[in-house]
Amino acid sequence: MAESILKRLSNAPPECVLVAGASGGIGQAFCLQLAEQFPSITLIRLARDTAKLLPLTAATQDIAFDITDPVSISHALKCLPDNVNIDWVFIATGWLHDDILHPEKTWRSLEAEHLLHAFTVNAIGPTLLVKQLLAKINPNHSTTIGILSARVGSISDNQIGGWHSYRASKAALNMLIKNFAIELKRMKRPTIVVGLQPGTTDTLLSEPFKRNVAPDHLQTPEFTAHHLIHVMQCLSAEDSGQLFDYAGFCFDP
Length: 253
Description:
- The chain has helices at about 25-35, 70-75, 110-135, 165-185, 220-235; strands at about 15-20, 40-45, 60-65, 90, 145-150, 190-195, 245, 250.
- By secondary structure, it is α/β, with parallel strands linked by helices.
- The protein has a single domain, classed as Rossmann fold (3-Layer(aba) Sandwich).
- An eight-stranded mixed beta sheet has the order 3-2-1-4-5-6-7-8, sandwiched between helices.
- Helix 3 links the parallel strand 4 (about 90) and strand 5.
- It is globular, with a radius of gyration of 17 Å.
């Protein structure tokens, strides 16, 4: 098994980081950890409801956006200057269930509405956000983009089936991450794009399923954010297009 990238020396600390989904469990913890670890950092926080964003000691620019609405994404990024230097982008958006729709246990439960919503939030939204960010940021500045994915989106790792919409939408996201990385490499842009698997974290997304998780395998958002920041710090150009878990190990799509 390959070594964890966390054994590498860390890269220079980020000076400017954009976090999309900054009001969610992991996104919020990520922002808090960044502000604590790097006090001079500037944070650009994108959230559906900016009123839910916590005050930080670090400098922030808070922008409202909706990951399911391409027009909203476009309007949000117009708030940033052209050719802006952003060191990291962390996309912490995602959807598994709500009060009406729940992960499908069988193909008999497959519905177009469920599939479309999962793909919109988990694959299409992040992809369009990355597309528009790549057109906005300084193409000569080194930028690392980490997008929350999921190990259950790995086709090779799938042994039990089920959760059709979630698995399929994350698998689609993983393919799009790979495509971005290939094209950016051909363009010789100093941009890294990876998928990040956060592990089972105690958030609203995992709330209905916590009873099936051993207590020592359920992570706090703070734990997850701390480890994902470390992963982001250790990434290098050859990692682009790959998927990494919170412990820094690469896993197959």
